[in-house]
Amino acid sequence: MDEQFLDLLAQIYDTEEKVVTEIINLEAISNLPKGTEHFVSDLHGEFQAFQHVLRNGSGTVKEKIKTLFREVWTDQEINDFTALIYYPEEKIQLVKENLCNKQALNRWYRQTIEHMLKLISYASSKYTRSKLRKALPEQFIYIVEELLYKTDSTNNKDPYYEEIYRQVISLGQADNLIIGLAYTTQRLVVDHLHVVGDIYDRGPDPDKIMDTLINYHSVDIQWGNHDVLWIGAYSGSLVCLANIIRICARYDNLDIIENVYGINLRPLLNLAEKYYDDNPAFRPNLQSNLNRSEEEILQITKIHQAIAMIQFKLEIPIIKRRPYFNMSERLLLEHIDFDKTEIKIGEKMYPLVNSCFATVHPQFPEQLLEEEQQVMEKLLFSVQHSEKLARHMNFFMKKGSLYLKYNGNLLFHGCIPLENNGNMKEMQIEDKTYSGRKLLDILEYYLRYAFAHPEVTDDLATDIVWYIWTGECSSLFGKREMTTFERYFIKDKDTYKERKNPYYHLRENEEICRKILQEFEMNPDYGHIINGHTPVKEIRGENPVKANGKLVVIDGGFSKAYQSTTGIAGYTLLYNSFGMQLVAHQKFNSKEDVLCSGTDLLSIKRLVDKELERKLVRETNVGESLLEKISNLKNLLEYHYMK
Ligand SMILES: O=P(O)(O)OC[C@H]1O[C@](O)(COP(=O)(O)O)[C@@H](O)[C@@H]1O
Ligand SMILES: [Mn+2]
């Protein structure tokens, strides 16, 4: 053992007692049951639904309440108490409106605080006191600990405890305490959160999701293709930037760009007004709660066309300078016959509808007009100087990765590119080829490089970020093509098909999943693969649990736009010391619904895997580092204190 390292350690643990206490403490912690992991994916800006799932811990909160109070409470009482834990501020307000006088309210406060303490004591039973303390509302730690750890069997202290309750209420602190305890409960039921990609696009509030995650006690993110698009835009990729604006226009979410991130769209609007008109293919998918005037809709429609055409132009030079991206089929603007308004795709000619090619030079379709160039430069400047976006993208880099090995499971958003025969598919980058884990590592390396060099806009790293969004060998996309152009301009729906990498059907096969786990040096007997990205069409009988339980796909469609295809409103996964459970969520309407009806449209649970023996902290990633620390401390004890 390195003596210098031990000397440093000795500065922190400078007495024998300190070393011994820490060893005992860590040994004890590593023998506790493992904490609950919570997996979500494909949130797509649906903040309300997401925060509901966070608040209810995918059903864990209600389950614990039922276990404790089922025998003594009616369903209505259980629902009321559950709603209080989810949305304490609003529920307290409702209770106040319904109770007739102060005495009744005080009685409710007294009972409710006691019930909450009982729930917290139960929910924290597998944690150390110190961990619980960190989760308690700061200003009430002392009081709550007194009430939680009552040990007086002689009842001598009863009046003392009663006085604490009375004082909290009479000093007007009951609301704050109840609210604080509700959040403590929410925090205790989930130890760690995994977001398996696609926080951004389609829905209205990705920024609120990011803020929630930034403040969350323990989280990691596996980037989705839509997240990478935003990272790309921030890192200087103009084509990624065009894409995020196009998608925001398409889903009537330009507010995110303009108001949330403060990016000025005026120059783009001026350009759009000059060259574009109404066009049915580019009318936005309206958010039902926004009352848009015809004039606003027309403006969005024009912006949508302007930015889509810039996007299609910008793709061309990248495809040409990176032949190994293997995307020459996507040079679509070059295959247009502008006189006949037709396009050749493969061997077939298709008429173009809804065309809006006023800014395209038929011989040089990749050329941006001077005005387009300027608009993009201004947009990029604005994007790279948005403080809020910088905060969100930095958080992505800090907590995110393309894939993650965690407690024996392998998490990634989309796929591991495979050949039809199940071998890892190779991708060439410059003069080398990569596949499997090495491919994901090199893609991530380039993404991080691009992020670190935002001033460079056309190097390989920046181009690769766009490739991760849309390339066939991207583990976040994994389809042969993205047929955005066809869906705008061609009637024949056959052209909309996006051919999926064989992974997406081979993953039904257990052997393939085992092979992938081995590729990542994981134990295929215990590990699982967790994916998002492809909406599971439960409505058509698709099973999210595949390959004999080795793989789970948890994209059930938080995204409202996809709920009619999936038939549900998203899956989440829970992994606690007893095993792994999949939770299917019903459509989330609003928190008002939960508060009024009290019922929670939850969640059918399915067991994915059951641990034969309860899993302990020592068998987890955290446990591994605890054991390493214990070993270091034991060395220190020997080297410093036992000489
Ligand atoms: O339905 P939209 O928003 O037009 O997007 C369709 C596009 O989104 C994609 O499905 C990618 O997004 P997802 O990662 O959410 O699946 C593409 O395959 C497809 O071309
Ligand atoms: Mn995706």
Automatic annotation (TrEMBL):
EC number annotated for this UniProt entry: 3.1.3.11
Signal peptide start-end: none
Keywords: Carbohydrate metabolism, Hydrolase, Manganese
Annotated catalysed reactions: beta-D-fructose 1,6-bisphosphate + H2O = beta-D-fructose 6-phosphate + phosphate
Cofactor(s) the protein requires to work: Mn(2+)
Annotated GO biological process: gluconeogenesis
One Pfam family linked to the record: FBPase_2
SUPFAM superfamilies hit by this protein: Metallo-dependent phosphatases (SSF56300)
UniProt pathway annotation: Carbohydrate biosynthesis; gluconeogenesis
Coiled coil: none
Keyword Chloroplast attached: no
Domain of life where this protein originates: Bacteria
GO terms for MF: fructose 1,6-bisphosphate 1-phosphatase activity
Family indicated by similarity: Belongs to the FBPase class 3 family.
The protein's name in its UniProt record: Fructose-1,6-bisphosphatase class 3
Organism: Paenibacillus oryzisoli
